[in-house]
Amino acid sequence: MKRNQNVQQHSTNFLPYPQPELPWTRIIEHKHFQADATLQMPRTIITREIPDQWQRDKTPYYPIGDNTNMALFRRYEALAAHETRVSFGGRLAEYRYYDMHQVIGSAMAKARKLLEGDRDEAAA
């Protein structure tokens, strides 16, 4: 429990933190899920999401853009460029963190390019 009234200094319930130097990927301030009366409480509760190390049987959380992972992504990206019957998209295919509105925008742009027959542009 934090003594501050508002830890995140805004009115949203969570903020993503995709920076590789931080151990957490998002902070949730729970009172922002509740009615306005809870916003005036003198204390607040936050949760820091700290993902586990990836293992084959676990679901990945967010892309971590360190040198090792980016080099691996570039290798996958080069392999994917040779595929002619599949199109990759979304967070893991582009290896970047997206909020939902960004995912939708990216998917719509990719679909538009694919429907226009421009596979090379859709891959970008």
TrEMBL record:
Domain UDP-galactopyranose mutase C-terminal residues, every copy: 7-97
InterPro entries membership: UDP-GalPyranose_mutase_C
GO molecular function: flavin adenine dinucleotide binding; UDP-galactopyranose mutase activity
Cleavable signal peptide: none
Pfam family, one: GLF
Domain of life: Bacteria
Gene Ontology cellular component terms for the protein in this record: cytosol
Cross-referenced PANTHER family: UDP-GALACTOPYRANOSE MUTASE
Name of the protein in its database record: UDP-galactopyranose mutase C-terminal domain-containing protein
Source species taxonomy: Bacteria, Pseudomonadati, Pseudomonadota, Betaproteobacteria, Burkholderiales
